[in-house]
Amino acid sequence: MPGVLELSFGQYQTVYNSLSFALASMLATFVFLLVVMQRVLPRYRQALAVSAIVCLIAAYHYWRIFNSFTDAYVAVGDGTPAMDGVEQSYVLVNGEGFNEGYRYIDWLLTVPLLLFEAIAVLALARMVRRNLMMKLIPAAFLMIALGYPGEISTDNMTRGIWGALSSIPFLYILYVLWVELGKSMVTQPEQVRKDLNGLRLLLLATWGVYPIAYLLPQLGIDGADSFVGRQVGYSIADVLAKCLFGLLIYKIAREKSFADDDAFAVQEIKEAPSSAGKTAS
Ligand code: RET
User: Fold this and answer.
1) 69-126 tens-digit pLDDT
2) Is 6-272 in CATH node 1.20.1070.10?
3) CB 57 near ligand 1, within 6 Å
4) Which of 23, 109, 120, 253 could bridge to 62 as Cys pair (CB 3.0-4.6 Å)?
5) What's the 231 CA to ligand 1 centre distance in angstroms?
6) pTM over cut 0.70
């Protein structure tokens, strides 16, 4: 818990809007994925279903985080901000702390599912898939469980130690995705290979934001600034890692469906003449 923290009006609004933006994005992506589910072959629908579930779980948690935030902070001063020249600010009410736990529970559920959907969309042989999941899922659990004690600590040393421990499974996940998944990519059609590469880059770029946001206090950014930075950083990274990632999974599933089944491709192109079937839309 960040202790007694005072947020300026602008800082309060920034966190409020980031959480609200993330909640809206998760809900919209959830609906979108459900609607387009029929536009890929049945064998790829599981990946889309998992992606939709990830967005729903996240929407629920963002709703809880949002409420926890608005309950935890109360306005002090009665003037409207900037109108009477006195900045209104928000303080954390004692005893009603902002609960960072929702975020970690969300990750505990969604990170393994995200890894599952990335593997599922490849439609690899059962043993290869099993092998990858057996490595990735325990590592994802460890990464998040080890990060949490540091997240709720106000002591930089404690934060650093748990952060370093959590980074070990994090690096292992990146290694498995890069090296082991790379081997499976060789057998994929050309366009799918390109998209998968994009997926891995997106994963690296967005997953990299989490440890950086976590490290803000260590980087000399303290108190309210670090709290706001973390909330904004985690929210944006979550939207990219869940929503954008889900949309890319859909694109890959659609391309693979076209590549696997000519009749399905022809049927889909007839139904969607503007897309001309060259780029999956
Ligand atoms: C922590 C603690 C500090 C060290 C590291 C971390 C990594 C977190 C990651 C979270 C990814 C979450 C995703 C959620 C989307 O659903 C726990 C912040 C390495 C990589 C992808």
Assistant:
1) 988 888 776 545 555 555 677 777 655 678 889 999 999 999 999 999 888 887 777 8
2) yes
3) no
4) 23
5) 13
6) yes
